[in-house]
């Protein structure tokens, strides 16, 4: 892979690529192209603004609220130079969920794009948080270069993920973690400066940011950045912009495959379509394979980079359903394996060591316990067969049942409730909830749905409701969630 030999620090990646090929295009966005030299200058300029005018210092956090935008990437590298960290907020969350994250990690500033200006101003007002428009970062402000304080050990990215108790926690990615993930992911995907990578998934997730976007910049490739996914814009991109790689999830793959343009769309520029999902519906994979494009897969978690196990193009056609083999520098083992199935444990330089502010993410030996159950084939490939942590994954979003249960349980009509995942053709899984009502209360799905709608993100809202007299429990009173999934749910 033709990458500069001096890519030894995360914050220095744009400058290293600018030295290699200053005229090469780093980003294409909204009809405009940004060369690597311009990208590197923007990162340096914004670092100066952050330091001189905003007072950002090592260890500080700056939040981002918006769709995919070049300003988010510039801000990330600028913060890295200072030794500060970016907190990308999931725009799909409810305002109350943003409030909880802002209160938890206390960013010093909030940056937004135009589409999320009103929400950002309201969020800033609720927390007395200075708010800035992304485009203002590029204005000509007298800002001398910021001093370089960032190191491999500096926190640079905080990404919230569902915790085992239902309370979201922020995985703290250091510059060393991100650099290792870029190196590993670029190597496995065989990225070169000649690649054109179409980023359509949201960069508030490590999937959209770290599986292809940052590795592409590490490789000196061009990132074709879309504000968000839509099937129509994706087909235009495939046919007009000629990407060589793209990343999708089952929900977006289904939107493409079901679209009227799918049978005749020109996909000839794609040498692979990668997917960020532990479980891929075989029907979707075969539909893409039928168009001559191998579907490769990445297994990982918010805490693991997430590039951990990968199914490359050479095995994609004959390993449908598998996650592939451990990526370079990644150690994998199965804990408490029985009949060839055990909990998947990962250890690698791209795995975070802590959650915010200082909660251990790994065990004493550095292993991250994924909570996923996997089988190991004789050829060394891994397949995910279940989830010990009971997460619901709907449309690429992780949802912990306790997040829903804790809110729904506050409704005066609800005595007990339990959320669980059920198969769904469009989203992979949909949220279902079993409800035990208090005596004298009537089953009113509309009222309970409205109660949740103002408190949870839309993708977390139940699509199936089940009214039961009691939740299935063990003799010790522990919920048998697996028994819930076997019950019939209402449409």
Automatic annotation (TrEMBL):
PANTHER family: ACYL-COA SYNTHETASE, MEDIUM-CHAIN ACYL-COA LIGASE ACSF2, MITOCHONDRIAL. Residues 16-356 form the AMP-dependent synthetase/ligase domain. GO terms for molecular function: medium-chain fatty acid-CoA ligase activity. It comes from the Bacteria. Residues 403-478 form the AMP-binding enzyme C-terminal domain. Keywords: Ligase. This is AMP-binding protein. It comes from Caenimonas aquaedulcis. Belongs to the ATP-dependent AMP-binding enzyme family. Pfam families: AMP-binding, AMP-binding_C.
